[in-house]
Amino acid sequence: MLKVSIAPDGREYPLPTEEENAQERELLKKITDEQRALGRKIVAVQGLGFVGCVMASVVADATDKDGKPIYFVHGHQRASKRSFWKVPVINTGVPPVSSSDPEVPEIFHRTVVEKKNFRATSEDSVYSLVDVVVVDIQLDATKPAFGQAEKGYCDITAFREGIRMLGQHIRPECLVLVETTVPPGTCEKVVKPILEEEFTKRGIDIVSNPPLVAHSYERVMPGAKYVSSIRDFWRVFSGVNHRSIEMCREFLSNVLDVENFPLTQLDSTNASELSKTMENSYRATNIALTLEWARFAEQIGVDIFKVRDAIRKRKGTHDNLLRPSLGVGGYCLTKDPVLANWAMGALFGVEGQLSMAINSVNINDTMPLHTIEIIKREYKELKNLKIAVLGVSYLENVGDTRHSPSKTLVEFLRKDLAVVRAHDPYVEHWDELEEVTVEKDIAGTLEDADVVILAVGHNQYKNLEPKALVEMSKKRPMIVDCSNFLSDETINKYKGLGCIVRGVGKGHIV
Amino acid sequence: MLKVSIAPDGREYPLPTEEENAQERELLKKITDEQRALGRKIVAVQGLGFVGCVMASVVADATDKDGKPIYFVHGHQRASKRSFWKVPVINTGVPPVSSSDPEVPEIFHRTVVEKKNFRATSEDSVYSLVDVVVVDIQLDATKPAFGQAEKGYCDITAFREGIRMLGQHIRPECLVLVETTVPPGTCEKVVKPILEEEFTKRGIDIVSNPPLVAHSYERVMPGAKYVSSIRDFWRVFSGVNHRSIEMCREFLSNVLDVENFPLTQLDSTNASELSKTMENSYRATNIALTLEWARFAEQIGVDIFKVRDAIRKRKGTHDNLLRPSLGVGGYCLTKDPVLANWAMGALFGVEGQLSMAINSVNINDTMPLHTIEIIKREYKELKNLKIAVLGVSYLENVGDTRHSPSKTLVEFLRKDLAVVRAHDPYVEHWDELEEVTVEKDIAGTLEDADVVILAVGHNQYKNLEPKALVEMSKKRPMIVDCSNFLSDETINKYKGLGCIVRGVGKGHIV
Fold first, then answer.
1. In the prediction, which pLDDT does B192 show?
2. DSSP string covering B393-442
3. How far B17 CA lies from chain A's nearest CA (Å)?
C-alpha cells in the first residue's frame, strides 16, 4: 500500500520513494549551486508549521538595497503522513495555512513562483548545503492532568532528533538559529551539546569550530496581520558565542524591519529563552487574575469590564490589564509557563516552582468551567439541554483552534450530557475535537437551542440582532456572553424578548 | 496628669479640655457662618492622615473662575494622644507630614494662613455644619500570620464608629464622600445602613432623605509630586443613588483637574470600591510574578532586569511589567487584595478566594527573605555578622516607612543574630520598628560591615562610589543589590576592589 499524506482539502500526496529522494538530492545540489552563483546565501527553515512556513517566505522575500533577493530558502518538512503534503502544495506557490491575512497567499506566490527563491523539500541532506538553519520545530508542553500544570513537562525527544539531524549534516560554519519557543536552557544544554557530539563524530574539531547557535523568538499573531507580525515587530535574540550573536544579528537585520522595530540583544540564549516564556507568563497571570475578580463582580452586581476600563485609564502602568473570557487558548500562553517551570528542575536542577505562572495556567485551563457554572445557576440539570456554542477557535475572527477553550467547554458540557451544537464561520474542521462537527449554518445551529453561548467574539456573533437570534432558535434561549461581546443595549433587547442573559464578569445584568 | 499629644519634633500639645471644646463649638459656628456669608460651601475632611491632610488643603485651594475659593474646609482629627498634635500644627499653616514635594508646605501656608479657608479641629460637632464630608479614616488589613494573607481580615470597628459619628451629626442633605480605600461593599453594606440607622434615631425620614453616600478613590504617591498626585490625576467614582453621584461629580470637578484628567463614573459604589482594590491587586500580582522569575534568573546566569527591558519593548501590552526588589511596601499593595478577599465572605457571603491576588501578597510579604537567602549562599551563619542595611523606607527618595520590606529584612536578620545597622537619609524615626535606630552617618553605618544591603534605591546609595564605600567599611564587604540599583560597570568596580557582589535577579554577576 502506498503511503500518502492527505491535505486539508482532501487531496492525496504519496510520500516520496527512495528513488525520488535520490533525484531530489541531486536537484537540491543543482539548485543550490545555481543560487549561490547568483550571489545568494542559502537558508533552510526546519519545520513548516504555523511560524516556519511564513518565516521561510519572509526570509525569501528579503531584498538587498537594489531590490534583489538576499537568500534562497529551502523549507524542510519531514516526509510524514501528517505533514508531507505541505511540500508539494508550497511548491505550487500556495500557502499550507489558511489565514485572513491577504499577504499570506501573496508572499508565497511571489517567492515560490515569481522570485523562485523559496522551495520546499522533505530531503534531510538539504542541511549540508546551507549557511543558516532557522529551527521552527513544533514543541509543546504536555499537561497530563487537567488543571494541574505543575505536573506538566516538555517532551523534547523529537526536537532533539531534529537537532541531531542538523549536527549530522550542517557545515561547521552554519548558523543554527532556534526560533521555536523552547524551555530556557535549551540552546546551551540541548542544542549545543548535540551539535558538538555530532561534529566530533564527523571529525570536526569543536574547539576551532564551535557550533554556532543563536536564539530569537517571534511574536506571531494569527489573523489579518499574520505575515507582518513575524516581519515587522520587535525581536529579542542572543547566541552561545560572539560569532553566533553577530551572524544572528546580520541575518535578522536582513530579513526583518529592524529600522522601525530595533533588535534587542540579550547576554545569553538562556536570557532570550527566559524572556519569551516570561513574556507569555506575564500575560497568562494577568488573565488569570481577571477571572477571579470577574467571579467576584458577578456576585456583587458589578460589570468587571467597566472596572477594567476605569483601571486602564492609568496609561503606562495599568493599561496592560487583560479581560476575563471563556478561557485562554492558542499555542503560547497555555504552554510557555509550563516549559519554563519544567526547565528549572529538568535542565538546571533548580528546586522550586514558578507558582504564579503555573497557578495562572491552572486557572486559565479550567476557566471554561466557570461558564458552565453560570449556566448551572439557571439550569441545575444540563442533561438533554440543547446548547449552541458560537465559536470554537481561540481568537476572534480567526480560524485557529489550537488549545481552544471551546474544546474544554464542549467536552465538559457533553460530560454533563448536554446536546451540543458548535458553530464557527472560520473553522472547516475541528482537528482537536474530531467527533464534533463544526456547523456553518447559524440558523440550524441555533434552532431549538435552550442556551446560546457566545464563546468567541467573531464579528458575525457580535452583529447578530437579538430578534434574529431568537427567531432562529424558535425559543427564548438563555444567552451567555463569555467576554463582553454584547453591549448593555443589546442585552436589554434580549431581555425585552424574554431571554435570560448572563455573562462572565457581568454582575450588573443579573 | 495632663494628657498630651507629642508631635514628631518632640513638642507637646495638651489635649483640649471640656471647656476648650465648648469654646471651639461656638467658634466653629461663628467661622462657618462667616464663610457661608462669603458664598462658600463648607467641607469637612474626616481624618488628617497621609491622604486626608493633603486632600483637605487641595479642596481649600480650589477656586472658581474668578479665582475665589469655592470651599471652606474643616479638617477633623480626633483628640487622640497619637494624632491630636496635627490640629494645632496645621492651624499654624504647617503640614503635619514631611515630604520632598515643595508644594506641600506651600499649599498649607496658602490655604491656612493666606486664604484662611482651611482650619483643623478635633471637635465632632463640626459635622453638623457642613455640606460635604470627605472620609479619609485610615483602614488597614490585619494579617495575623506572616506569609498567610488568606487569613487576613479587616477590622472595621473604628471606621464604623467614625461613620456613626457622621450619622449623629450631619444634615440629611450632606454628601458623605468616602475616599478611604475600603473593602468592596462598604458604602452599600456598612456606611449607608449606619447613616440610615442614625438618621432614623434622629427622626429623619430616610425615604424622603436617603443618605447621600459616594465613593471615589485617590491614587496618591508619596514623593516629589505628592500634592499633584491627589489633584491632577484620573479619578473613579460612584454613589449609592443618583443625587450622590451628581453631588460627587460636582465636588470632584470643582476640586480636581478634571479637564486634563477626566472623571470615570462607574455604576455603583461596589464597582468603584472593587476597582481600587483590583487595580492594586494587579500591581501586586505583577510584582510577585517577577520575583519568581528573578530567582530562576539568578540560578541560570541571567539578568532579569535586562529581560524585563526586552519584554517591555512591547508597548501597550507588556510595558506594565514591574521589577523584583527587596519586597513590596506602602499602604496599598500590601493590604488591598486582603480587603477584597475578606469582603467576599464577610460582606457578601460569597465563597472562594481571590487566589492570584492573595498568593501575590504572600510572595511579596515574604520577598525580603529571598535577599537573606542570597546572603546565606555566601555566609552559612549570620550570627554576629555585621550587616549594614541602606534604606528603610518603602520607596526610593522618600521617607515613608509604612509596611516597609526593610522591616521584615531587619527583623529576620536579627532573628539570625546578625548585628544590623540601618541607615536612611529620609527617615528620622522608624515608627514601625522603634528598637532600631536609623543612622544618619553613612560612614558610621558602613564601618566594619561584612555585608552591605542596598535595600532602597535612594540616590545617595546609587551614587556611592565603590571605592568610597569600601574605604568607609574598612573591609571588603559583600554587596547585595536588591533591585538593580548598580550598573554592570559599578558592579565590576566593586569586584575589582575584592568585594563579592550579588543581587536579586542578577544571575549574570555570579
1. 98
2. SSSTT----TT-HHHHHHHHHHHTT-EEEEE-SS-S--GGGTTS-EE--H
3. 46
Q: Cβ(B183)–Cβ(B343) under 8 Å?
A: yes
B285 and A184 within 8 Å at the Cβ level: the answer is no
Amino acid at position B200, single letter: T
Render pLDDT for B205-253 as a digit per residue (tens, 0 to 9).
999 999 999 999 999 998 999 999 999 999 999 999 999 999 999 999 9
Smallest CA–CA separation between A282 and chain B, in Å? Answer: 7
Q: What is the mean pLDDT of residues B287-303?
A: 97
Quick check: B302 and A274 CB within 8 A?
Answer: yes
Interfacial B residues in 217-256 facing A (CB < 8 Å):
219, 234, 236
Residues 122-161 of B with CB under 8 A from A: none
Give the integer Cα–Cα distance in Å for A119 and A113: 9
Geometric angle at alpha carbon B67, from B66 and B69, rounded to 5°: 115
Considering only the beta carbons, identify the residue of A299, A301, A307 that sits closest to B278: A307
Distance CA B407, CA B430 (A): 9
CA distance A428 to B404: 57
Q: Average pLDDT by consecutive 10-residue portion of chain A (510 residues)?
A: 86 96 98 98 97 98 96 97 97 95 98 98 98 97 97 97 98 98 98 98 98 96 94 97 98 98 98 98 98 97 98 95 97 96 97 96 98 96 97 94 97 98 95 95 97 97 97 97 97 98 96
Is the CB of A271 inside 8 Å of chain B's CB atoms?
Answer: yes
Provide the whole-model pTM.
Answer: 0.96
Whole-angstrom distance, CA of residue B169 vs CA of residue B167: 6
Reply yes or no on whether the pLDDT at B2 is more than 90. no
- The pairing of strands B4-6 and B12-14 is antiparallel
**Are residues B220 and B242 in contact, defined by beta-carbon separation less than 8 angstroms?**
no
Inspect the interface and report whether the beta carbons of B293 and A359 lie closer than 8 Å: no
Least CB–CB distance from B359: residue in A219, A268, A355: A355
Sheet with A212-217, edge to edge strand ranges: A118-121, A71-76, A41-46, A132-135, A175-178, A212-217, A236-239, A264-265
What strands, in cross-sheet order, belong to the sheet with B478-481?
B438-439, B419-423, B386-390, B451-454, B478-481, B501-503
Alpha-carbon torsion, ordered A111, A116, A122, A124, to 10 deg: -110
Choose the mutation target among B182, B302, B341 for the interface with A, i.e. most A CBs under 10 Å. B302
pLDDT attached to residue B1 = 55
Q: Residue with C-alpha cell 459619628?
A: B165
Q: Is the pLDDT of residue B318 over 80?
A: yes
Other CB atoms closer than 10 Å to residue B137's CB: what's the count? Answer: 20
Q: Is there a contact between A234 and B317 if contact means CB atoms under 8 Å apart?
A: no
- Flag whether pLDDT at B105 surpasses 60: yes
Residue B495 has pLDDT above 60, yes or no: yes
For residue B129, what are the β-bridge partners? Answer: none
ipTM computed for the complex: 0.96
**Cβ neighbours of A264 in B, within 8 Å:** 309-310, 313
The Cα–Cα gap between A218 and A236 comes to 8
Any idea what DSSP says for residue B448? T
Q: Where are the beta strands (DSSP E) in B25-67?
A: 41-46
DSSP B389: E
Percent of chain B with pLDDT over 90: 97
Report the residue from A302, A311, A314 with minimal CB separation from B270.
Answer: A302
Average pLDDT in the B177-186 region? 98
Domains by residue range for chain B, with CATH:
4-270 (3.40.50.720), 360-509 (3.40.50.720)
Of B267, B313, B348, the CB nearest to A306: B267
Q: What is the reported pLDDT for B180?
A: 97
